[in-house]
Amino acid sequence: MKKILFLFLAGFIAMSISQQSEAQNVIKTPVPERPAGQTDVLELRTGPLPIVRVAFIGLGMRGPGAVERMTHIEGVEIIALCDVEQKNTEKVNKMLEKRGFPKAQEFYGDTSVWRKVTALPNVDLIYVATDWKSHATIGVQAMKEGKHVAIEVPSAMTMDEIWALVNTSEQTRKHCMQLENCVYDFFELTTLNMVQQGLLGEIVHGEGAYIHGLQPFWNQYWNNWRMDYNRKHRGDLYPTHGFGPVCQAMNIHRGDKLNYLVSVDAKQLSSVNFIKEKTGEEVKDFRNGEHTSTLISTEKGKSILIEHNVNSPRPYSRMYQLTGTKGFANKYPVQGYALEAGEIDPAIAANHENLNAHSFVPDDVRKALMQKYKHPIAKDIEEKAKQVGGHGGMDFIMDYRLIYCLQKGLPLDMDVYDLAEWCSLIPLTEISLDNSSSPVEIPDFTRGAWNKLDGLKFAE
Ligand SMILES: NC(=O)c1ccc[n+]([C@@H]2O[C@H](COP(=O)([O-])OP(=O)(O)OC[C@H]3O[C@@H](n4cnc5c(N)ncnc54)[C@H](O)[C@@H]3O)[C@@H](O)[C@H]2O)c1
């Protein structure tokens, strides 16, 4: 009997140890050592640039709008326009002329001509809106040639590219900002302000997504780059719109850090059918799942859910949900807040009895809350942003803030570590999926400085 009990206990202990070591069995990717003499670029300040001279690389569907928006910002000079296709640079120059601006120098002809642009001596900022694969190479070279760089989303696709951008920004002390516009949308800005003022209590869980059926766009991308990338890669290939606003609300690398993720995807049907319908091709090698879900855990014990689906017929959604200890915010499909009893300013709640977090606040209360907690940035620039436009104004706020901070020599709202964290989901979800949804470590891209700053502050 004693022998049986001993064997049972020994087996139990062995099982517990193996479960424990399995739980610790997180896949890790290499973290390059920071070169000697190099320090982090948290809250990087650079010399003020009262006039910011900008060169644009990539003028397909997205780039021309950025050039146009910049013509509405005081103190910007548009120096150069670059694209593989001459018709694209010409078209944008015509827009500049029409708006009464001097023509910019044009660069076109092949996929390497951008190297002449990053080498220009009279440029301060390189603004990149090419396809995903060329982003990081252009960004690294721009900084090496003494320029700040702003790169469309996602700015980097592999861990090597991400680390190259982090290291080059640290080495050169140049800004490297990802052009993540959704953090500047009005609901996100207002909600961030509410969070920072404690209205939602401590945020314990966040959700975000990029759910957008791209069927009307697939055949409009230069060289079919977007479908090709989806065909070749599994994972969340477009995480930043959903992930960025949640990371900001959770102070990622400003008091908390991302620890690890796990991903699960659903089999691909819609895009395979789409290709068959359009071209007759029977695709057998499509890697990207139809719907990819990723769960992330943070050092301070928070959880995040991020979803990606560019395939199924569904209404557009970035989800954007924050669950706090005193309240809840939700953007898609219905914008709303739910708050614990007593958390709402009595003046706002006056006409409603017994408001509590079991239901969304009535519409008039939501509107009054959004007015009261309007973010100072939105207060300053909302009207002009709505006039100039760009996804309802958020694109203009992003460009305006970028130029404002460069002109004043202030830290940018988003640093290279935000870029790294938000883009890291792309390669790391692929690793998780290719390893039966194993947990994968999200590196601390600040290499030890994630707790140095106390929360996110937009410089004034
Ligand atoms: N933030 C947003 O809301 C948003 C919206 C749309 C697109 N985007 C991003 O913007 C980027 C561009 O997307 P798009 O829809 O304009 O794609 P697109 O295919 O319409 O345009 C890409 C352009 O880049 C040019 N190009 C490619 N390689 C080049 C090179 N080496 N040198 C110079 N030019 C080059 C192409 O000729 C093309 O004109 C992507 O990263 C995309 O994810 C972001």
Q: What is the straight-line distance between the termini? A: 75 Å
| Quantity of strands, as a count | 14
Strand content: 15-25%
Order the strands across the largest sheet as they lie in space: 13-12-11-7-10-9-8-14
Judged by helices, strands and strand pairing, the structural class is: alpha/beta
**Radius of gyration from the CA trace?**
24 Å
Task: Specify the helix fraction band.
Answer: 25-40%
Tally the helices: 15
What is the CATH homologous superfamily assignment of the largest domain?
Answer: Dihydrodipicolinate Reductase, domain 2
Total domain modules = 2
The top-level CATH class of the largest domain is Alpha Beta
Series of secondary-structure elements, N-terminal to C-terminal: HEHEHEHEHEHEHEHHEHEEEEEHHHHHE
Question: What is this structure, in a nutshell?
Answer:
The protein is of the alpha/beta class. It has two domains: 52-179, 3-Layer(aba) Sandwich (Rossmann fold), CATH 3.40.50.720; 183-375 and 415-441, Dihydrodipicolinate Reductase, domain 2. The protein has helices at 2-23, 63-70, 86-98, 114-118, 135-144, 159-172, 186-196, 225-232, 240-249, 270-279, 346-349, 363-372, 376-388, 394-408, 416-434, and strands at 52-57, 76-82, 105-107, 125-128, 148-151, 176-178, 203-211, 258-266, 291-298, 303-309, 321-324, 327-330, 336-339, 440-441.
